[in-house]
Amino acid sequence: MLRRRTMLTAAGATLAAPPYVSGQGVITIRHAHSLSTTEPAHLAAVFFARNVLERSGGRVRIEVFPGEQLGSGKDVNEMIRAGANVMNITDFGYLADFVPDAGILNGPYLVQRHEQLARLFATDWYRDLDRRIQQAGFRLIMAGAFFGARHMIADKPIRTPADIAGMTVRVPPNTMWLETFRALGARPTTVQWSEVYNALGQGVVQAAEAPFGSLWGARLHEVRKVISTTAHFIATTTWPINNGFFSRLPRDVQDLLLEEGAKGGAEQTRLTVAMEEDFIARFKAAGVTVVTDVDRAAFQRATVPVYSAFPRWTPNLHQTVSRLLAS
User: Fold this and answer.
1) CA 151 to CA 276: how far, in whole Å?
2) Is the overall model pTM greater than 0.85, yes or no?
3) Residues 229, 239: one domain?
4) Is 70 in the same domain as 129?
5) Residue 221 CB partners (closer than 8 Å, separation 6+)
6) What Å distances lie between residue 57 and 20, 22, 63, 226, 257, CA to CA?
7) Which residue from 9, 3, 30, 28 is spatially nearest to 240, judged by alpha carbons?
8) The total number of structural domains that make up the chain
9) Are strands 226-228 and 151-154 parallel, antiparallel or unpaired?
């Protein structure tokens, strides 16, 4: 149902562009994601598309495709690596499929507040990571926008790791999520985001997790009535594009995309923070119980072994990143 609704609204996300009659013509780039059109990440993508269109005088057109219309997030990343002129709203957990060290930026309880991550993005360590991401075939038009703290939605409160033990939990198809929920004693099950509503409704999974905006956008409160604010991931997003495609664009277009990408990321962060209380109010009005007395320290302790579960990471990666965050 989410997929049908977002397909109907896709036309509104594709911004009309005037014809470009000189130079090399209109440059069209598809911008894909798996989310609903009510979420800050989608609104930021439309904001980015509008600004690029206006600043380029119609020369560069960004077409936004929500709701997995171009495929799952994992599939779109593969399309990008293969050279398609498409962008994606994804995260470093997915980019870890190509550059393993990127996965640590999506680790459980790595930070307590999203502002702390700005320290990492200003370090030589991150600049080297970005270089390796480019070598793997991706150029990040935007990196590190706040997507929200990720919380649990289930049919009962989840206050401690004991409450999640043995529970079947929907997770995205990447290793960081799988390892995190295994460490918590749950049974993680990968289901595409567009199928989570049905999976919960049919009892295929007992619980799911996401930021408030995504939980609301997918209408998961219709099939589960308890949200527990575990904040197990402080989630950020990135917008990758194929590095080869990007390098062949005119230099002024490259600069335009990067400048407006940074603004789009800032807009996503602003909207995510600004809309959080509104989403909580919407949930409560819909009869959802929002549990706030969660023992996050216990969850953090339980997930410490996750950082030893990645043999392809650079040795002592967690210690290195923790030191940079503390400096």
Assistant:
1) 12
2) yes
3) no
4) yes
5) 153, 215, 227, 283, 286, 287, 288
6) 8, 11, 16, 48, 14
7) 30
8) 2
9) antiparallel
Residues of the domain holding 91: 2-101+109-146+235-276
The CATH number for 211's domain is 3.40.190.170
User: Tens-digit pLDDT profile for the chain (327 aa)?
Assistant: 333 333 333 433 444 333 333 345 899 999 999 999 999 999 999 999 999 999 999 999 999 999 999 999 999 999 999 999 999 999 999 999 999 999 999 999 999 999 999 889 999 999 999 999 999 999 999 999 999 999 999 999 999 999 999 999 999 998 999 999 999 999 999 999 999 999 999 999 999 999 999 999 999 999 999 999 999 999 999 999 999 999 999 999 999 999 999 999 999 999 999 999 999 999 999 999 999 999 999 999 999 999 999 999 999 999 999 999 998
For residue 190, the surrounding DSSP H or E stretch is: strand 187-190
Q: Which two tokens stand for residue 5?
A: 């609704």
With beta carbons less than 8 A apart as the criterion, state whether 251 and 72 touch.
Answer: no
Rounded-to-integer distance, Cα 76 and Cα 96, Å: 15
